[in-house]
Design goal:
Blueprint lengths: L1 H5 L3 H8 L13 E3 L2 E5 L8 H9 L4 E5 L5 H22 L13 E3 L2 H8 L1 H8 L2 H11 L4 E9 L19 H4 L4 H6 L4 E7 L11 E2 L9 H4 L3 H10 L10 E4 L5 E2 L10 E9 L11 H8 L8 H11 L23 H11 L3 H15 L2
Parallel strand pairs: 2-3
Antiparallel strand pairs: 1-2, 3-8, 4-5, 5-10, 6-8, 6-10, 7-9
Helix pairs in contact: 2-11, 3-7, 4-5, 4-6, 5-6, 14-15
Length: 369
């Protein structure tokens, strides 16, 4: 890995991030602003999956979906729950730690997905019944993905983050990264999709995320992001976009980025950060998805098929491994049934909540070592 660190050349990086985002590379975008494609959430459908994957991998590495949430009341309802959680956690735990900011500088809700689901399952069902989020995750990661979310609320005066790449390798020291061979540095970004949902109107002055389009393609970037000369290039070349409530942003975990400084006097910026892991990858946070499935199930029957699919994908385990193959053998195929399979079957066959709860418990017990 010493050779990888030695190959971090600023000239090559400058050339890469000078790449222009061309309309022909994102033909369905409604606009390109500062090198970032913008899409209309109302027009987003499965035909965009291939284009979005290309934008993340070979293109600028980031795109914005305007009006990703058609139902802003779902955003508002979730915001109220999140504010209650923030107030309760600050009262009981004090200021919390953060990845790239001083403890207490911002308000952070770890595992906001589970906390919203268990605190207000009806609100959660409306919030996660979002085909845009499901489409973006499937476009980059395929089926069986695992969503986790974290709320970040930045008050006026909140300072900017240092530029970085994200989980997995991005959450290691340079020495730890150096233990992983070069092909892992190239492969790792395919296992995670980063994103966020704007819970308020956010002008650039409120500290919207600073982004460096095309930087995710720099193979040595995990090491480079720790070096001062590359951080200087980031600060020189990065861009920011304003977001409106209900907009969503998605980007490669390898994209150089950093939350900006909130220089306003009266704008509190709230974003629900989305970190989605490939079915084959380890997620950062542990979630009690069985409890989440039980909580949200009574609220799914009223949703349409597409909305139900989105909620189940965000909530249930969509991949059957690891498991105990002695007690949980393949069921008529190569793999056992998943939590997501059970949820879908329960809805199709009209199970009551008690029956689903029992099946989920049996499924969990069968997987125990």
């Amino acid at each position: 890995m010493k050779d990888l660190a030695a190959s971090c050349r600023t000239e090559a990086f400058r050339d890469l991030v000078a790449t222009e985002t061309r309309p022909e590379d994102c033909p369905s975008a409604i606009a390109i602003e500062k090198g970032i494609p913008l899409y209309d959430g109302a027009a987003a459908g499965p035909e965009l999956a291939e284009e979005w994957a290309a934008v993340i991998g070979q293109g600028p590495g980031v795109f914005v979906v305007k009006r990703a949430f058609a139902d802003l009341s779902a955003i508002d309802a979730a915001t109220e729950v999140f504010r209650d959680i923030i107030a309760r956690e600050r009262a009981t735990k004090g200021p919390g730690a953060d990845h790239f900011a001083a403890a207490g500088a911002n308000d952070r809700i770890w595992n906001s997905l589970q906390k919203l689901c268990l605190a207000a399952p009806g609100v959660y069902a409306r919030y996660m019944a979002n085909p845009v989020i499901d489409l973006a995750c499937r476009a980059w990661l395929g089926p069986g993905y695992q969503i986790a979310t974290q709320v970040n609320q930045v008050r006026p005066g909140g300072k900017a983050q240092a530029p970085h790449r994200d989980y997995h390798l991005g959450f290691m020291s340079a020495e730890q990264m150096a233990d992983y061979p070069a092909h892992i540095h190239t492969m790792a970004p395919a296992l995670v999709l980063q994103g966020g949902v704007a819970h308020s109107d956010m002008p650039v002055e409120s500290g919207t995320t600073k982004l460096l389009p095309h930087s995710q393609k720099f193979a040595e970037g995990y090491i480079a992001a720790t070096l001062p000369e590359f951080r200087a290039i980031f600060e020189e070349r990065c861009v920011q976009l304003p977001l409106e409530k209900g907009d969503a942003i998605f980007f490669s975990p390898a994209l150089f980025h950093a939350a900006g400084e909130n220089t306003t006097r009266d704008v509190t910026r709230m974003v629900n950060l989305i970190q989605t892991a490939h079915a084959f990858a380890r997620s950062m946070e542990s979630l009690d998805r069985r409890a989440m499935c039980k909580a949200v199930y009574p609220h799914l029957a009223a949703l349409g098929a597409e909305a139900r699919q989105a909620v189940i994908a965000a909530t249930a385990e969509g991949y059957p491994f690891p498991t105990n193959l002695d007690t949980d053998p393949p069921a008529g195929g190569l793999a056992p049934a998943t939590q997501a399979d059970l949820m879908a079957r329960a809805l199709e066959e009209g199970w009551d909540a008690e029956r689903l709860d029992g099946e989920l418990d049996r499924r969990s017990e069968a997987q125990r070592p």
